[in-house]
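I need you to check the entry underneath: sequence plus fold tokens. Let me know what the token row says about the fold.

>
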Amino acid sequence: MRILFCAFFLVLLVAQVLPASPFARDPSCHSAVFPPRAGRCVAPRASPAGTRSTIGLSPRVSTKNPGLSRLASSFLLPGSMKALTGLVLSRKGNSVPSPWSGVSAPLAQPSIARNSRALLAKACSLSSSHAVGEQKRRSGNLSDSPACGSRNARLYASLSQARNMSTKANPYAFAAKTLEGTQKTYYDLGALQDDRLKTLPFSIRVLLESAVRNCDGFSIKPEDVQTILDWQKSSQAQKEIPFMPARVLLQDFTGVPAVVDLAAMRDAMARLGGPPSKINPLVDVDLVIDHSVQVDYSRSPQAFEKNLAKEMERNSERFSFLKWGSTAFSNMLIVPPGSGIVHQVNLEYLARVVMDKAKNGNRSLLYPDSLVGTDSHTTMINGLGVVAWGVGGIEAEAVMLGQQISMVLPQVIGFELTGQLSPSVTATDLVLTVTNILRKKGVVGKFVEFYGPGVKTLTLADRATVANMAPEYGATMGFFPVDEQTLRYLKQTGRSDEKVDLIEAYTKANYLFAGQGAHEAIAFSDRVSLNLSEIQPCVAGPKRPQDRVPLNDVKEDFQVSLRNPVGFKGFGLADAQAEKKVEMTYQGKTYTLTNGSVVIAAITSCTNTSNPGVILGAAMLARNAVQKGLSVPPYIVTTLSPGSQAVTEYLARSGLLTDLEKLGFYTAGYGCMTCIGNTGDFDPEVSEAITKGDLVVAAVLSGNRNFEGRVHPLTRANYLASPPLVVAYALAGRVDFDFENEPLGNDSEGKPVFLRDIWPSRDQIAEVEAKALSASAFVKIYEHITEGTPAWNALKTAKASDLFEWDEKSTYIHNPPFFQTMGKEPSPIADIEDAYCLLNLGDSITTDHISPAGNIAMNSPAAKYLQAKGVERKDFNTYGARRGNDEIMVRGTFANIRLVNKLCPKDGPKTVHVPTGEVLPVYDVAMKYKAEGKPMIVLAGKEYGSGSSRDWAAKGPYLMGVKAIIAESFERIHRTNLVGMGIVPLQFQEGQNAESLGLTGKEQFSISLNKGEIVPGSLITVKTREGKTFDVRCRIDTELEVKYFQNGGILHYVLRNLVKQHAEGH
């Protein structure tokens, strides 16, 4: 009994008396899931440094009884409890700031810190043994008890049910230190005194620091810290950990639906009796408008201004809504259109590398910058040493509202780079090679961390290029730890010397700086190596980024692909069709188009335009070509769409911008543009020639994705290439071109000009870069980044209010149905019975196949909806721009013209209504099944949901009525999105697929979900009405995801928690 009282008083002391660790994330002040209770965050009385203290007393605890802690410590607690109490109540030595300005809490002595884990473990054992024993006696169960951490967590929860759990102290408070030479605090990983620290990859150390800093014993527990420290075993066992990112990054295609969801959640909060203001971002949110601008005009000095004006005209309603959001929600920064691409702006300006934040007027806390972004290429910032990855909009919204990410602790592949790049090789060639290697290796769901002597030879921009394409090689991250190159880049892009010095000091002090030999002690899950000197110039295509082709082989590869059966490397043309030519008259001259003719040449995408080396290389190649008298055919849509205005600033300073323009590469806009399919329409003469001959024409772009139908509906072949090669292919006019043996043209003297004659050397590029790039160029651009154009500033916004006034006539912004019928308690999970297969799909179905971002086809269900609303064809805009309207997006689900459905493989984005045999658009069939009360499933192959982090690829099927996806494998972000919308991802067992099981897609499927009581990763039985039975793996991967699914989705889970806490007075 005495031990039970000891445990009770220990919990009481921890919860009521002890200080939450300085700057620990205290959800009572900073979390929507754990909102503030009355009286919290009030400054206590100061205590002199080095003395006993009751810092952190809540006003709810009587301060008239100063003997409470002494009573508990002296009279009730066993010796080990006294030791623990002494550890946390009497901390002599260095002082660290308290959670309140001007109050200091003494720091534990090193000897105490070294023994803290042992003391905590012993106290845990003592405090839980009695409770476990009592439970056994009552139940008669005398089997072995669970691990100490789990027992203690349950005991704590049972004793604190009626309390606000967020008042718990951080057991790692002893690790809080003052950074030498500053007045800033940080959590010192070295204070853990654990030899495993130096064996952890740098990326895992960032996860560890977050767990230590945010540990509150409830949402993040001490055992989570131990799980990360034991990373080698934990990652193999696929253990779950929580992670709280420091920031959220949005672009407007995903940002608009995110703000729509937040506004809809406020409506639901009000309907369920809670204050709408509870729905509010609690972390920094940066939204960069970059996805809306289209290439309506090109090859003109006025292209940028005209495209920007068109963008504002088309999207004024969306932009006005975002401006309302920036005033209605706190912690939200909007970067206006025409500023740049989100990832490049993040790299050059937004990223902190080390967060330096004061809470409530306190001294600053230092901790690693980290973020999640609603774009899969958020990983670009990994090149700067920032832990980040892409998530779906729904998961990002949950993070905004204070919900930690639940993730399986990933394995880390160590990628060793040796040697250095050859003079003719670019960072683009490097990343395409890495993508090819890692796709073959298989790194889905894993971190990749780069190290070795070759890393030191890469510029920061080169690293960012490699990190950017992590989604293409399948990894969650492609991480480069902070080193000297990082610091050099930060100074180059205008960060202050003081800030950079602080970053250096913090990362070196906290085992986060990759110095000489830093990776020697790290025990990676697996290793890959690449000698940079062996990389050759290359492109990737014609349909996937992982299909690397050496530059010298492109001509032959394309010709073979023309005749290969339809597939990733085949177009299925007969010999006669492969040789077809079509003449056209364009601007008064006759030109011939063939299979392989280049019709788009775009220097685009943050992947490459963030890299001064390849941009200046392209400009120098253009200068040399102009000097040789070469030109680009006028029918080719040539565009320059830089990721930031800093690019055109240094191009202008170098004097090379005009050379690009002379070849037609005028600045078309500062946004994603061609890279995401905002390519605009071809001139009629070009479109007619392509369609007349049914030609396989090509786009060459410096982008990161080239899935069929993404870049432009009429370019069936799409090749990713470096910016210099984009210029080279524009000059050649064909992709089936042998640069080694075929001249690009003749110079003024009639001599043939080969690519090697105009290709700039690496030394020449470096010389120009040194002169053109300066910190002042970046400072000049970014000091006005949020000001916007006159047109932006003139936008009218809805009146400031907690609730948005929805306009039912709007075709851009519509109140979604996700929360409109939601109750305070979740509905029971029903089994899936007699479901029809909506689609039977193959491998590599991308989120663009599921929810396209490009043009809205004239005969599509979405087009019919818009026409019924009185919208003219010219004002359709794109699916991406319409993501704030669920009515359009559900109609656009599975509407990609390149979608191949095995139920009707020749009919485009259509499917079969199985009971009647009718072939209709997918949306129409889904609505028939819904009207009949029949659930639906989808069958698919490998890599289902690859590509962009597009939450509408989960929202759309959900609104259609799809209950489960059965696939051979899922891409990481999309699997999470499916769970987040309450759709069950189910995976065929190894070696099985729909075909091997004899499934045609015309069966009816029944799946038992055990009323939602699902074990993550367990086998689930599927039965068909026709008599087939097979098991599939449930890809709800964590216990927290089970809770999301039981609630109908992650946002429903968060919203119910908020409503419940309000009802309880929290």
In short: Residues 1-5, 8-167 have pLDDT under 50 and may be disordered. The first helix runs from residue 2 to 17.
